[in-house]
Amino acid sequence: MSPRRARSGGLIDRGRAISFTFDGKAYTGHAGDTLASALLANGVTLFGRSFKYHRPRGVYTAGVDEPNALVTVLKDGVREPNIPATLLEIHDGLEADSQNRFPSLDFDLNAVNQLGGPLFSAGFYYKTFMGPVMGPLKGTRFWMFCEHFIRRAAGLGRAGYEKDPARYERMNAFCDVLVIGSGPAGLMAAEAAALAGKRVILAEQEPRLGGTANWSGETIGGVSAADWAEAMAEKLAAMDNVRLLARTTVWGYYDGNNLAALERVADHLATAPRGLPRHRHWSIRAAKVVLATGALERPIVFPGNDRPGVMLAGAAMRYANEFGVLPGERIAVFTNNDSAYRAAAALRKAGAAIVAIIDVRQDISAAARKLAEEAGVAPLTGHAVVGTAGKRLAKISAQRFDAATGRLSGDVRPIEVDCLAVSGGWSPAIHLASQAGGSPVWDEKLSAFLPPEPTQDWLGAGALTGAATTAEALSAGRRAGSAAVGAEAPSSALPEAASPTLDPFPAPVFEIKAKGKAFVDLQHDVTADDIRLAHREGFVSVEHLKRYTTLGMATDQGKTSNVPGLAIMAEARGLPIDRVGATRFRPPFAPVSIGSLAAETHRHLKPDRLTPMHDWHVERGGRMMPAGLWHRPMIYGELGETVEQAYIREAAAVRRSVGICDVSTLGKIAVKGPDAAEFLDRVYTNVFSTLPIGKARYGLMLREDGIVLDDGTTWRLGEHDFLMTTTTANAGKVMQHLEYLLDIVWPELRVHLTSVTDQWAGASVAGPNARKVLEACITGTGLDDAALPFMGIVHGAIDDVPVMICRLSFSGELAYEVYCGAGHGLHVWEALVEAGAPYGIVPYGLEALGTLRIEKGHVTGAEMDGRTTARDLYLDWMLSKKKPFVGSALMDREGLIDRNRIRLVGLISLDGQPLGGGAHIVEKGSLDDLGASIGHVTAFCYSPALQKYIGLALVKGGKARHGTRAFVSDPLRRRFGPVEIVSHHFFDPEGRRMHG
Amino acid sequence: MLISCPYCGPRDLSEFSYQGDASRMRPDAASTDIKAWHDYVYNRPNPAGPHREYWQHTAGCRAHLIVTRDTLTHEIHEVTFARAALRAVGGRP
Amino acid sequence: MAERLSPLGAAFRPGMHGGPGAGPGVRLSEVTPPSIMEATAWPGRKGALAEAISAVTGLSLSARPNAGAVSAEASAFSIAPERFLVCGGAELPARLAAAITIETGTVVDLSHGRTALRIAGPRAEWVLSKLFAVDVAPAAFPVAEARATSHHEIFAQIQRTGPDQFDIFVFRSFARAFWTMLCDAAEEVGYEAAG
Q1: Is the ipTM, as predicted for this complex, more than 0.95?
Q2: Any chain C CB within 8 A of the CB of B8?
């Protein structure tokens, strides 16, 4: 058995030994131990080095409030820093390392930092490194020089670089009542709500349900409190309507009674079963919340209060009672309230010697005196601890103390101890209540903030509301649980709890002022003097104080330091504490793994959206690229081809014979109803009501402000039946735009919209031989100009699959879009490829598609960029003058018809080099003086038809510059060269090929 | 934040898209009153307190809703179907 | 005529996967029916539309929000204030189009546009709760009812077709991605992918 482990007592399983390492050294503990309790049991008191001064630090608490004992856990090759040893359950093979020490925890070179104390005082960074360079030792440049050393010397754990292989998940939960905290109040609340038949979730951050019952040493209902809690947990677990979530920290309380929680599902397991997430992010929607979050003990601030061996009294008691571990053999207690006397009695009972109880108060309650007797020591009242000594605590010194004036007097008395248990009173854990809304209320007698009046649906119970005894917690818990579900309280008698009748009110003593560093925020190394310095320098707002000194900003978020820090600030300002004000608590209550927030998107960030022909493209060497969520072939590369060679080959094949392209990604919207034609007239700039059945028309849509929204063809399939196509990128946006207009602007129109993008597979067959390819495989329709004129639609079948064919062209060639049910898409595609084989049909990707359209001067999203008007793109021929449409009222505003706007032109590279997308167009040919930009390149390619590098651009004045010369300037890509500005209709401007 | 969709029930904010101020009035389609169009497209009162807004339940039933929301507290006072409400007043908000 | 291909491709791996080993927690399968039609009523005509659908399918469909009905041959459920999804055999599109006149509403054929994925088994609610922020407890989400919601970018219409069985309708282009996510979420409890 370990040196500090009691032979009996506690809730650990002495029959199960667990092996782990700390800083590479092997230790054993027991099932039920945390890393902190197991190391304490092994006599380890040094857990880490402090943030700035590298002072040795021990474990200070036994729970979520731990500021000091942060370790790095090494698991599966991943380092996870800053885990409180007090929350880390040990398991076989656990590897943990201490932090912020070099070269070792025991001997740390940077401990020299503490000798230069003032160097790292409040605002150190701002004072030393901000502002202009004034000599060698100040300013931002000096910071850049020092940063490396300071970053290494100051800080917490170091994060790893390895990819985290763990699984994280999200879980959505709904309940009538969420009970947070499973101490006596929480258990009673959960039981009362569950007995009423309601859906209850009980969340407990620790592995074991029961809260204080696990270490209070009290009896509840005639049995030990821990046994009572275990029986209650079993009873609740057996109920269908209750979900118990242990190891689950509720860390956020949001609007609408939405709460966020982190469940540590597998951290405590040596090996997690496949599929089990490491952490689960719970998003809980609760009709009511019962907050039974208890209270956190706070320290008294005094010089040397950070020495390993100093810890909170309640934590010392918890180690003894729950883990059977003595944090020391010669223990002194220092307190301003009665609760520490219970710790003294419990530690004595567990086998430690209590060498002194030092109490700042002159008078103490009879119950406290009785506990002191049990502890075997006469309290030293009216005294305070003024210093500590020893690398590990060996000695404390006490002096007479007047609680009313804060004055010390008399001789300094040394007392030899190896542990000092400190209590400065209790602060209700109001974090979640404060997150829910409202301002905390300062209670003078309790010297503590109580939760605000609820502005959301929650009730509080137990120590959170200032209840001092277990009996109060039990009855308040039951009341809250019943009230939360609007039921009568259960008729059974409340379990009886026997607690000593202690004085619940502490003396309002927060700090003992004596010589030496007295720490308020142990984790960020903020001292009482730092706070006073900040005050002298003019930081009076508590929010400024916090940021300037970084008090309460570390991973523990000041759980132990908040109230002492405020009290010291209040004293410095000469104000009562409630006038200084509290900072608002924000989520998260405790650190949350980033993996849990990413949850299931951790591995697949965005879903892949695939066309019916996707696998075919991949098998044929299609190099896929993202287009929104879609995956589309960029090129179909042949062996040894560059991208440019591939698209030139593909585009040339289309112009020469025939090509086939997957256009399934185009947005498709079914527009149906008696008012469908009228609706289209209002949303498109041109007229659709005159479109005959069986014909398609190119349409342009504007936004209300007159800017181009999208373009596409719309097909009339019936009197009340249209099929609208949109660009791939804008399908969702256009759908929303149309839905808005129908719901809000013209609710009287009888039109229904349905997204049918996924219903249809689409293949564009383009090139001089396109008709021959179709004729080789189509049945049920003719394809000659009479049966299928330009922009006509026919229905037929390919290999017995029904298809709909529209003759329209994006490439400028004779071209057809062939649509069929998506589930038949691959089949029809393969039939078309087979039919095209005699003509050398070539599948072409986005690069070739882009090349063909640039040659034709067709615009896409690169030109319809949310800033251009129809006139800018020379599409004003599409603006109907016969009817109003969306955007018609504002499209002619002064700024939108300015002759100096950038408008669409074509560019030809004059030096035989490619043009860069996004490159600016300038008029001057000297690199030393480029002059102002007159526009930019929106798209470029090598044109196999023209045998030149060409591009589209938006250039000031547009058409007026045709035939002039300019330069492209692209300094990022070191490209500068001459271009000729021409019409954007490079190829076959009369459109003879597509009509042919 | 939750919005209680009158069709789907209370859903998380992430299922909805904000679609603008519901107090604006679109001028008659043929109106050439540029100021009125400007007010419709650009000018917003941005009140501190109750505010009528359009929200679309894009990840649910896709209906547009009129949500009366307090911009100071996020409290939602009322949610109705926009189309039904606007049909009742003849549309053209 | 050619067979309608499943969008799942190689992502569909039949057999048992994951889990602690004591039998699958859920069974996952693709159950896209021969026909999926979307039917939408004009304002005030939802009752008439529900009647027309009931007459064609033999279902007893109500116009209540989220209402649905299931039989061996057909199913239907409401997905929006005036809108239903109707599933059935190959003859459904023609019969529905004939039964729903332009005075009642419109119908759109989505037989190829939506893919139905079924999750069934004792842990179906648990796995579904990983992906969707809707309350799937039986009291909140009874058999035959439906919910329209989404998993991030993937829009989903879900009908509860049994006490521990849900049919999830997703856009076909997302089906493979969603199936992969569904399998991944089910790995904890173990799943059988079945045809």
Answers
A1: yes
A2: yes
